Amino acid sequence: MSLLTVGSVAFDALETPFGKTDKIIGGAATYITLAASYFTKANNLVAVVGGDFPQEMIDLFVSHGINTEGLQIKADGKTFFWSGKYHTDMNTRDTLDVQLNVMGDFDPVIPASYQGCEYLMLGNTAPAIQKQVLDRMEKRPKLVMLDTMNFWMDIAMDDLKAVLPLVDVLTINDEEARMLSQQYSLRKAAAIIMEMGPKTLIIKKGEHGALLFQGDRIFFAPALPLEEVFDPTGAGDTFAGGFIGYLASTDDISFENMKRAIIYGSAMASFCVEKFGSERLVNLTEKEIDNRVLEFVSLASFEIR
Which InterPro entries match (predicted)? Predict the structure, then answer.
């Protein structure tokens, strides 16, 4: 089934305990669509970049089967830029620089060929933009998934609360779940957040795995213990891309299939952190992905005597 992703395509400059980069390609929609490309062949992108965005990266999207008809190129503008430095624990980071550039007035135009997409991934952008996308869809998708962050909870909480009733799945991290719900217990937080609209909630816990909530049902997926983590940038977006890409490929939105999608999303995220930026996501093989999923299965399976 077809997937539409709306979000940012950007330049990042990163520094971790393992090294640093100059400008590399980043942005939520980049990670989401690259991860999803390993599952669904109907993979559509809506984003905006400046005239400084390299054609070879657009060619890379196309080589992964990503439809770039909805990628706006503002020739007289510059691409969104973010720079950050990670602490030694790799869980905390400092933002060093943010330049919105063409993202500052992003108008998400949905091409006619994208109308009718069954799955919609609203990447982390302003809630007002996310709602605008929904308003511009001629037909409601079968499943709408939204990612957001604490920044929008600080400056646009009313807008966020207006869009939450319109989505099916919300994905946030544990800090954001507590902030949105004003509850410390993640189980209590999940119940409150699901009352705000989304019937399904995913709480990402980074190196500690992910929780899936739907009604009274809960599923926990562990994170894979890796020998080396070079760069956690984009891991959450890669997770989301693997999750919704798997759902779109199977066209099954049951809770049982979402449990499988959580594992596939976690597997894709585990690849992402092994190199800087999106580098590890570019040339994965089906065998690598299958073997990584089996590692997750082995990690979490046991018998009761």
Answer: Carboh/pur_kinase_PfkB_CS, PfkB_dom, Ribokinase-like
